Amino acid sequence: MNVDANVSSRINLMRIVLISGIVFVHIPFDGANSPFNGTYGTFDWIRVFLAEALFRVGVPCLSAISGYLLFRGGLENFSYLKTVRNKSQTVLLPFLLWNGAFFLAVLVALGLGLGEGYVPSPWQASARELMTQLFAAEDFPINVPLYFLRDLFVCILLSPLLAWLVSRVPLLTLAVLLVLSVIPEASLYIVLKRSILFSFSLGIYIGLNKIDVKALDRYAPLGTALLLGSCAVLATAIYMTGPSLPDWVQLLRNTLAIVGALGFWLLSASLIKTQLGQRLSKTGSLSFWIFCGHYPLLIFLWIVWGKTGVDAYPLFFVLSLLVLFPVLAVSNGLCRRITPRLYAVLTGGRTKKQLDMRAPGHAISSKLISQQR
Predict the structure, then answer these.
(1) Contacts of residue 156, Cβ cutoff 8 Å, sequence gap at least 6
(2) Other CB atoms within 10 A of residue 162 CB
(3) Which of 97, 156, 171, 259 has the maximal Cβ count within 10 Å?
(4) What is the pTM of this model?
(5) Could you list the mean pLDDT of each consecutive 10-residue stretch along the chain, which spans 373 residues?
(6) How many CB atoms lie within 10 A of CB 46?
(7) Contact 177, 201 (CB under 8 A)
(8) How many Cβ atoms sit within 10 Å of the Cβ of residue 315?
Protein backbone atom coordinates (compact mmCIF):
# COMPACT_ATOMS: atom_id res chain seq x y z
CA MET A 1 0.00 0.00 0.00
CA ASN A 2 1.45 3.34 -1.04
CA VAL A 3 1.17 6.31 1.31
CA ASP A 4 1.42 9.70 -0.33
CA ALA A 5 4.21 12.15 0.39
CA ASN A 6 1.95 14.47 2.39
CA VAL A 7 1.05 11.77 4.92
CA SER A 8 4.66 10.61 5.10
CA SER A 9 5.92 14.14 5.77
CA ARG A 10 3.22 14.79 8.35
CA ILE A 11 4.10 11.63 10.24
CA ASN A 12 7.74 12.71 10.39
CA LEU A 13 6.67 16.20 11.41
CA MET A 14 4.43 14.84 14.17
CA ARG A 15 7.27 12.76 15.55
CA ILE A 16 9.72 15.63 15.97
CA VAL A 17 7.08 18.03 17.33
CA LEU A 18 5.56 15.59 19.80
CA ILE A 19 8.90 14.22 20.99
CA SER A 20 10.19 17.75 21.47
CA GLY A 21 7.02 18.42 23.45
CA ILE A 22 7.59 15.36 25.60
CA VAL A 23 10.79 17.07 26.79
CA PHE A 24 8.60 19.61 28.64
CA VAL A 25 6.94 16.75 30.49
CA HIS A 26 10.24 15.59 31.94
CA ILE A 27 11.89 18.85 32.97
CA PRO A 28 12.66 18.12 36.65
CA PHE A 29 11.65 20.19 39.65
CA ASP A 30 11.66 19.75 43.41
CA GLY A 31 8.90 20.26 45.97
CA ALA A 32 9.79 23.91 46.47
CA ASN A 33 9.35 24.57 42.75
CA SER A 34 6.21 22.57 42.04
CA PRO A 35 3.90 24.47 39.68
CA PHE A 36 1.06 23.79 42.09
CA ASN A 37 2.65 26.05 44.71
CA GLY A 38 1.68 29.00 42.55
CA THR A 39 4.98 30.72 43.29
CA TYR A 40 5.49 31.96 39.74
CA GLY A 41 1.88 32.60 38.73
CA THR A 42 1.37 32.57 34.96
CA PHE A 43 4.67 30.79 34.41
CA ASP A 44 3.45 27.89 36.58
CA TRP A 45 0.19 27.73 34.62
CA ILE A 46 2.16 27.56 31.36
CA ARG A 47 4.20 24.66 32.78
CA VAL A 48 0.99 22.82 33.61
CA PHE A 49 -0.46 23.62 30.18
CA LEU A 50 2.56 22.18 28.38
CA ALA A 51 3.37 19.20 30.60
CA GLU A 52 -0.01 18.11 31.95
CA ALA A 53 -2.31 18.99 29.07
CA LEU A 54 -0.96 19.74 25.60
CA PHE A 55 1.94 17.31 25.32
CA ARG A 56 0.27 14.44 27.15
CA VAL A 57 -1.09 13.81 23.67
CA GLY A 58 2.37 12.74 22.53
CA VAL A 59 2.42 9.11 23.66
CA PRO A 60 -1.10 8.18 22.43
CA CYS A 61 -0.49 9.89 19.10
CA LEU A 62 2.87 8.20 18.51
CA SER A 63 1.30 4.86 19.47
CA ALA A 64 -1.49 5.31 16.93
CA ILE A 65 1.05 6.14 14.23
CA SER A 66 2.97 2.94 15.05
CA GLY A 67 -0.14 0.77 14.83
CA TYR A 68 -1.15 2.42 11.56
CA LEU A 69 2.24 1.93 9.92
CA LEU A 70 2.40 -1.69 11.01
CA PHE A 71 -0.88 -2.66 9.34
CA ARG A 72 -1.30 -0.13 6.56
CA GLY A 73 -0.62 -2.91 4.05
CA GLY A 74 -3.36 -5.17 5.44
CA LEU A 75 -3.29 -8.51 7.23
CA GLU A 76 -2.28 -10.36 4.09
CA ASN A 77 1.04 -8.51 3.96
CA PHE A 78 1.78 -8.80 7.68
CA SER A 79 4.49 -11.23 8.76
CA TYR A 80 4.63 -11.68 12.52
CA LEU A 81 8.07 -13.27 12.73
CA LYS A 82 9.59 -10.73 10.37
CA THR A 83 7.95 -7.89 12.29
CA VAL A 84 9.16 -9.11 15.68
CA ARG A 85 12.66 -9.61 14.32
CA ASN A 86 12.69 -6.13 12.81
CA LYS A 87 11.19 -4.41 15.86
CA SER A 88 13.64 -6.18 18.14
CA GLN A 89 16.31 -4.16 16.36
CA THR A 90 14.41 -0.89 15.96
CA VAL A 91 12.55 -0.76 19.31
CA LEU A 92 13.80 -3.31 21.85
CA LEU A 93 17.56 -3.03 21.27
CA PRO A 94 17.65 0.81 21.49
CA PHE A 95 15.60 0.58 24.70
CA LEU A 96 18.08 -1.84 26.25
CA LEU A 97 21.14 0.13 25.11
CA TRP A 98 19.99 3.65 26.07
CA ASN A 99 18.45 2.54 29.36
CA GLY A 100 21.42 0.27 30.16
CA ALA A 101 23.90 3.06 29.45
CA PHE A 102 22.08 5.46 31.79
CA PHE A 103 21.86 2.71 34.43
CA LEU A 104 25.65 2.25 34.30
CA ALA A 105 26.18 6.02 34.44
CA VAL A 106 23.96 6.25 37.51
CA LEU A 107 25.74 3.29 39.08
CA VAL A 108 29.15 4.93 38.63
CA ALA A 109 27.97 8.41 39.68
CA LEU A 110 26.33 7.18 42.89
CA GLY A 111 29.35 5.03 43.62
CA LEU A 112 31.42 8.22 43.53
CA GLY A 113 28.94 10.04 45.75
CA LEU A 114 27.41 12.13 42.94
CA GLY A 115 23.71 12.57 42.22
CA GLU A 116 22.33 10.99 45.38
CA GLY A 117 18.63 11.76 45.73
CA TYR A 118 18.21 12.74 42.11
CA VAL A 119 17.85 9.24 40.69
CA PRO A 120 16.82 5.85 42.10
CA SER A 121 19.84 4.04 43.51
CA PRO A 122 20.73 0.66 41.99
CA TRP A 123 23.07 0.12 44.97
CA GLN A 124 20.13 0.03 47.40
CA ALA A 125 17.62 -1.69 45.12
CA SER A 126 16.25 -5.19 45.53
CA ALA A 127 16.54 -7.69 42.70
CA ARG A 128 12.92 -6.93 41.78
CA GLU A 129 13.59 -3.18 41.71
CA LEU A 130 16.68 -3.72 39.58
CA MET A 131 14.56 -5.60 37.04
CA THR A 132 12.30 -2.57 36.85
CA GLN A 133 15.15 -0.07 36.59
CA LEU A 134 16.77 -2.08 33.80
CA PHE A 135 13.82 -3.57 31.94
CA ALA A 136 10.70 -1.65 33.12
CA ALA A 137 9.33 -4.92 34.46
CA GLU A 138 6.73 -3.33 36.74
CA ASP A 139 7.23 0.42 36.58
CA PHE A 140 9.17 3.13 34.78
CA PRO A 141 12.78 2.26 33.84
CA ILE A 142 15.67 4.37 35.10
CA ASN A 143 15.56 6.36 31.83
CA VAL A 144 11.90 7.20 32.44
CA PRO A 145 10.60 8.12 28.94
CA LEU A 146 11.80 4.80 27.51
CA TYR A 147 8.79 3.06 29.03
CA PHE A 148 7.15 3.98 25.75
CA LEU A 149 9.52 1.71 23.81
CA ARG A 150 8.88 -1.09 26.32
CA ASP A 151 5.09 -0.72 25.96
CA LEU A 152 5.33 -0.36 22.20
CA PHE A 153 7.24 -3.62 21.90
CA VAL A 154 4.61 -5.34 24.06
CA CYS A 155 1.93 -4.05 21.68
CA ILE A 156 3.93 -5.38 18.73
CA LEU A 157 4.11 -8.81 20.38
CA LEU A 158 0.33 -8.65 20.85
CA SER A 159 -0.32 -7.23 17.38
CA PRO A 160 -1.77 -10.38 15.75
CA LEU A 161 -4.32 -10.69 18.56
CA LEU A 162 -5.13 -6.98 18.48
CA ALA A 163 -5.48 -7.03 14.70
CA TRP A 164 -7.77 -10.08 14.86
CA LEU A 165 -9.99 -8.40 17.48
CA VAL A 166 -10.06 -5.10 15.62
CA SER A 167 -10.98 -6.81 12.36
CA ARG A 168 -13.70 -9.01 13.95
CA VAL A 169 -15.24 -6.87 16.69
CA PRO A 170 -13.77 -3.39 16.18
CA LEU A 171 -16.28 -1.29 18.10
CA LEU A 172 -16.33 -3.57 21.14
CA THR A 173 -12.55 -3.92 21.19
CA LEU A 174 -11.87 -0.21 20.87
CA ALA A 175 -14.64 0.73 23.31
CA VAL A 176 -13.31 -1.60 26.01
CA LEU A 177 -9.72 -0.45 25.54
CA LEU A 178 -10.83 3.20 25.55
CA VAL A 179 -12.73 2.81 28.82
CA LEU A 180 -9.76 1.05 30.38
CA SER A 181 -7.51 3.88 29.20
CA VAL A 182 -9.46 6.78 30.70
CA ILE A 183 -10.58 5.31 34.04
CA PRO A 184 -8.47 6.94 36.77
CA GLU A 185 -6.01 4.70 38.63
CA ALA A 186 -6.83 1.58 36.59
CA SER A 187 -4.09 -0.84 35.55
CA LEU A 188 -3.63 -3.27 32.68
CA TYR A 189 -0.31 -4.65 34.02
CA ILE A 190 0.92 -5.71 30.58
CA VAL A 191 1.53 -2.08 29.63
CA LEU A 192 2.64 0.74 31.91
CA LYS A 193 0.65 3.36 30.03
CA ARG A 194 -2.91 2.23 29.29
CA SER A 195 -3.49 4.75 26.49
CA ILE A 196 -0.76 3.11 24.41
CA LEU A 197 -2.70 -0.13 24.00
CA PHE A 198 -5.86 1.68 22.88
CA SER A 199 -4.09 4.09 20.55
CA PHE A 200 -1.98 1.35 18.98
CA SER A 201 -5.18 -0.65 18.34
CA LEU A 202 -6.89 2.41 16.88
CA GLY A 203 -3.94 2.83 14.53
CA ILE A 204 -4.33 -0.82 13.50
CA TYR A 205 -8.02 -0.18 12.78
CA ILE A 206 -7.23 2.86 10.61
CA GLY A 207 -4.54 0.95 8.72
CA LEU A 208 -6.57 -2.23 8.13
CA ASN A 209 -9.60 -0.30 6.93
CA LYS A 210 -7.53 2.04 4.77
CA ILE A 211 -9.29 5.05 6.27
CA ASP A 212 -8.42 8.30 4.57
CA VAL A 213 -6.35 10.06 7.20
CA LYS A 214 -6.67 13.35 5.32
CA ALA A 215 -10.48 13.34 5.21
CA LEU A 216 -10.83 15.95 7.96
CA ASP A 217 -8.00 18.23 6.85
CA ARG A 218 -10.45 20.95 5.81
CA TYR A 219 -11.33 21.29 9.50
CA ALA A 220 -7.69 21.82 10.52
CA PRO A 221 -8.14 25.40 11.86
CA LEU A 222 -11.19 24.36 13.90
CA GLY A 223 -9.49 21.21 15.19
CA THR A 224 -6.39 23.16 16.21
CA ALA A 225 -8.47 25.78 18.01
CA LEU A 226 -10.45 23.11 19.85
CA LEU A 227 -7.24 21.34 20.87
CA LEU A 228 -5.63 24.47 22.29
CA GLY A 229 -8.85 25.65 23.94
CA SER A 230 -9.52 22.27 25.55
CA CYS A 231 -5.94 22.06 26.80
CA ALA A 232 -6.22 25.54 28.29
CA VAL A 233 -9.41 24.59 30.16
CA LEU A 234 -7.87 21.32 31.35
CA ALA A 235 -4.65 23.07 32.43
CA THR A 236 -6.70 25.54 34.49
CA ALA A 237 -8.59 22.69 36.19
CA ILE A 238 -5.33 20.85 36.93
CA TYR A 239 -3.61 24.02 38.16
CA MET A 240 -6.49 24.79 40.55
CA THR A 241 -6.90 21.24 41.92
CA GLY A 242 -3.39 19.76 41.74
CA PRO A 243 -1.20 18.07 42.65
CA SER A 244 -3.71 15.51 44.05
CA LEU A 245 -6.20 15.58 41.21
CA PRO A 246 -9.82 14.56 41.80
CA ASP A 247 -11.12 11.68 39.71
CA TRP A 248 -13.10 13.91 37.35
CA VAL A 249 -10.00 15.91 36.42
CA GLN A 250 -7.99 12.72 35.89
CA LEU A 251 -10.79 11.42 33.68
CA LEU A 252 -10.75 14.60 31.60
CA ARG A 253 -6.97 14.53 31.34
CA ASN A 254 -6.88 10.90 30.23
CA THR A 255 -9.63 11.49 27.70
CA LEU A 256 -8.07 14.61 26.20
CA ALA A 257 -4.71 12.84 25.92
CA ILE A 258 -6.36 10.43 23.50
CA VAL A 259 -8.85 12.67 21.70
CA GLY A 260 -6.25 15.41 21.39
CA ALA A 261 -4.24 13.22 19.02
CA LEU A 262 -6.76 14.10 16.32
CA GLY A 263 -6.23 17.79 17.02
CA PHE A 264 -2.48 17.41 16.61
CA TRP A 265 -2.93 15.50 13.37
CA LEU A 266 -5.12 18.33 12.04
CA LEU A 267 -2.52 20.83 13.23
CA SER A 268 0.06 19.00 11.12
CA ALA A 269 -2.11 19.62 8.03
CA SER A 270 -1.51 23.35 8.41
CA LEU A 271 2.03 23.20 9.74
CA ILE A 272 3.33 20.99 6.91
CA LYS A 273 2.50 23.78 4.47
CA THR A 274 4.99 26.11 6.12
CA GLN A 275 8.74 26.28 5.54
CA LEU A 276 9.33 25.43 9.20
CA GLY A 277 7.06 22.41 8.96
CA GLN A 278 8.85 21.15 5.87
CA ARG A 279 12.25 21.50 7.54
CA LEU A 280 11.07 19.71 10.69
CA SER A 281 9.64 16.87 8.63
CA LYS A 282 13.13 16.15 7.30
CA THR A 283 14.86 15.84 10.69
CA GLY A 284 14.35 12.06 10.65
CA SER A 285 16.39 10.18 13.22
CA LEU A 286 17.00 13.31 15.31
CA SER A 287 13.58 12.87 16.91
CA PHE A 288 14.48 9.39 18.15
CA TRP A 289 17.84 10.66 19.44
CA ILE A 290 16.06 13.44 21.37
CA PHE A 291 13.56 10.97 22.76
CA CYS A 292 16.19 8.56 24.08
CA GLY A 293 18.74 11.13 25.24
CA HIS A 294 16.80 14.02 26.74
CA TYR A 295 16.02 12.60 30.18
CA PRO A 296 19.60 11.73 31.25
CA LEU A 297 20.74 15.16 30.05
CA LEU A 298 17.92 16.91 31.95
CA ILE A 299 18.88 15.07 35.14
CA PHE A 300 22.53 16.07 34.66
CA LEU A 301 21.54 19.71 34.15
CA TRP A 302 19.31 19.58 37.25
CA ILE A 303 22.19 18.23 39.36
CA VAL A 304 24.52 20.94 38.06
CA TRP A 305 21.87 23.59 38.71
CA GLY A 306 21.53 22.36 42.30
CA LYS A 307 25.24 23.04 42.80
CA THR A 308 24.91 26.69 41.72
CA GLY A 309 22.70 27.66 44.65
CA VAL A 310 20.60 29.88 42.40
CA ASP A 311 16.95 29.95 43.47
CA ALA A 312 15.19 31.01 40.28
CA TYR A 313 13.42 28.00 38.79
CA PRO A 314 12.07 29.79 35.68
CA LEU A 315 15.68 30.53 34.75
CA PHE A 316 16.57 26.83 35.00
CA PHE A 317 13.49 25.91 32.97
CA VAL A 318 14.47 28.19 30.10
CA LEU A 319 18.23 27.54 30.23
CA SER A 320 17.75 23.76 30.30
CA LEU A 321 15.85 23.96 27.02
CA LEU A 322 18.40 26.33 25.47
CA VAL A 323 21.17 23.87 26.35
CA LEU A 324 19.40 20.57 25.78
CA PHE A 325 18.22 20.87 22.19
CA PRO A 326 21.53 22.17 20.73
CA VAL A 327 23.52 19.54 22.66
CA LEU A 328 21.30 16.74 21.41
CA ALA A 329 21.30 18.07 17.85
CA VAL A 330 25.10 18.39 17.77
CA SER A 331 25.71 15.00 19.44
CA ASN A 332 23.27 13.42 16.98
CA GLY A 333 25.17 14.81 14.02
CA LEU A 334 28.61 13.94 15.43
CA CYS A 335 27.69 10.35 16.25
CA ARG A 336 26.09 9.89 12.82
CA ARG A 337 29.22 11.13 11.03
CA ILE A 338 31.98 9.71 13.25
CA THR A 339 30.52 6.32 14.23
CA PRO A 340 27.75 5.56 11.73
CA ARG A 341 27.50 1.90 12.72
CA LEU A 342 27.03 2.74 16.40
CA TYR A 343 24.59 5.45 15.40
CA ALA A 344 22.57 2.98 13.36
CA VAL A 345 22.33 0.63 16.35
CA LEU A 346 21.42 3.39 18.82
CA THR A 347 18.67 4.72 16.56
CA GLY A 348 17.34 1.32 15.54
CA GLY A 349 18.50 1.69 11.94
CA ARG A 350 16.73 5.03 11.53
CA THR A 351 18.33 7.60 9.26
CA LYS A 352 17.94 11.29 8.63
CA LYS A 353 15.81 10.53 5.62
CA GLN A 354 12.06 10.88 5.55
CA LEU A 355 9.87 7.99 6.64
CA ASP A 356 10.56 4.88 4.60
CA MET A 357 7.07 3.82 3.63
CA ARG A 358 8.25 0.37 2.61
CA ALA A 359 8.85 -0.65 6.23
CA PRO A 360 5.89 -0.56 8.61
CA GLY A 361 7.49 0.55 10.90
CA HIS A 362 11.40 3.18 40.38
CA ALA A 363 10.00 5.93 42.28
CA ILE A 364 12.53 8.73 42.41
CA SER A 365 13.59 10.36 45.66
CA SER A 366 11.48 13.22 46.95
CA LYS A 367 14.47 15.40 46.14
CA LEU A 368 13.40 15.21 42.53
CA ILE A 369 9.90 15.39 41.17
CA SER A 370 9.84 14.54 37.49
CA GLN A 371 6.51 14.25 35.71
CA GLN A 372 6.65 10.67 34.57
CA ARG A 373 4.24 10.46 31.72
Answers:
(1) 70, 83, 84, 87, 91
(2) 23
(3) 156
(4) 0.92
(5) 79 96 96 93 97 95 96 92 96 98 96 89 94 95 97 97 96 96 87 96 96 95 96 97 94 96 95 95 94 97 92 96 98 96 93 46 43 47
(6) 17
(7) yes
(8) 12
